[in-house]
Each structure stands twice: as structure tokens, then as C-alpha cells.
């Protein structure tokens, strides 16, 4: 084992790697005649302390127990035991996907890489190589590598995913949406902006097909198209697209706020956490863009800031909710009888009420 596997969790990292390598076999795939090694060796996975720590934070705490259970039963041929083991692998794949998506939304690409890699290897172990079920894992690995600047690896992974999708045209819209989004990200990174626009348009198309025309699932596609147009200096189109994104999030957040007020103590899933991080990033970028314009659109600024105020209120950060609520109110008051003024004031009153409530143990 590499000497880098030392530190506070070194023995656990070695345990994790031995479990992973004991359960999941190395896999080599071929992409149009080129060999793509998708399985990392132990030494590369654990090459230094930083890498080991990322491995621990990203994956260990979620899946070590499942790997122990899977490995303990891998040589048992009783049909009932094998069926239970397959169910555990299916659950492990789901957990790894959620962890990878959550880490990607937080910009923690090194941690996402390990979760995505485990997702791929478990998928190969369960479904076999060169199967359509591997596509989501290829996409997650591509996104993680993109964040780390490994664009050659990204191109190979997305080629493998594209080839699998081409062989299975009946594949669901959700996976095709994810693939086009990743392809759009890749082509944006390498400067192929027109190709990126094509893929982001397909992202929106498949999102509409899967979730409906008015779904908030389409917002990221519009946002990414706006980013490409911003790179091309087409500000008017960017403004129009940002307005669409803000309106869709406003509808979604109003619904979330209502649910939150009814069930304030409800837990937040991995998916919801990742979605909220992504939502906050989009809205923050849009607000900064609009505030920098020489001719500000007060109505749009009020809408975006109200979105952010609702989001932070739901997340429990009353200080940020108040800050963005004040920004929203200031903008809405510039427009006589603006429809958002009253909802913004009501939200600020709720924030103030919660801030003045006596805290437990303060007596």
C-alpha cells in the first residue's frame, strides 16, 4: 500500500480500498479502438494525504458498511443470498450517485470523483461491462474530471456514454438530458460554443419531455445557454433567459416555502441539498449580472432577490434571508404597486419574528 495512506483515517482508507478491490473487478473499455482504463490502481487512489482525505470524506462514511456486507457474501451461491447481495449493490449505486451529485453541486470535484468511480465499478459488477446502465456513472465521472481539468479523460468518458446511448435509442429522457448537459459543459470548456448550444438545447428538450414544460428541471439548461450567450457578448438574450430562469425558480420556491412552513422540521435529502446549492449558485450569478447592468431591471432584481430570500429562509439562514429580502423590497418599491412588494414584506416579517423569538435555554 502506498505510503500516502497515513493520517487520521489511514487504516480506514486501506480497509475501504481492500473492500472495493475485493468486490469490484478492474474494467478496461474500448472507445472507437482506443483503450480507456476506468479502474484506478490502489497507488493512484491513495497517492497522497490530500487524496486519501478526499477519498474518506467523499465516500467512506456512506458505503464502507455496505462493502463489508457485499464482500462477505460474494462467494456464496445460494440464490436468496445472491439476490440480497444484488439489492445491496443496487442500493450502493444509488448512494454513490447521490453523494457524487451532492459533491459536484458543492464544487468538491475530488470527492465526487471517488463516489462516481465507486458507482461505475459497482455498476460494472452488477450489470456487466458495455451496458446501458453504466451511462449515469460515466456522466458523473466526466463531470468530476471536468471540474479537475482532465478534459482528455472527459472526452473518452462521454464518447463511451454517447456510444451506449446510440445503441439504445429507447433510453429514457432523463439520462439523455444528463448526457447532453455534460456534452454541453465539455464543449463550452474547449470553446466549441455553437456545439455547446446544440447540446444545452437538447438538455432542455429532454427535461421538458421527462418532467414537463413548466418544470424547474429545465432551469439549468436555460441558465447554461445564457452562459454561452454571455461569452458571445449577446447581453439582450442573456437577460431574457435569466428572466425565464428566475420566473421558474420563483414558482418552485413558493411551493417549497409553503411546504417548509407546514413541515419546518422535515429533513433534507441529498438530492434536495444538491438542488438547493445549484439553485443558489444560479440565482446569485443572475443577480450579480443584473446589478452590473447600466440600465437595471428593478422588477427582475426584486424577483431574483426574493428567490434568494425564500431559499435562505428555507435553509434556516435568517441573516441572509433578511439581507436578500431587503434587497428585493428596495427594488420592488421602485415600481408602483408591484405584485411582489406584499409577499416580500410578509417574508421579512416572518424573519424578524423568528429572530426575536427567545432561544431555548436563554432564560
Automatic annotation (TrEMBL):
It comes from the Eukaryota. The keyword Signal applies. Transmembrane segments: none annotated. Keywords: Signal. The keyword Ligase does not apply. Residues 1-33 form the signal peptide. InterPro entries: TPR-like_helical_dom_sf, Zinc_finger_MYND_domain. PANTHER family: ZINC FINGER MYND DOMAIN-CONTAINING PROTEIN 12. This is Zinc finger, MYND-type containing 12. It comes from Poecilia formosa (Amazon molly).
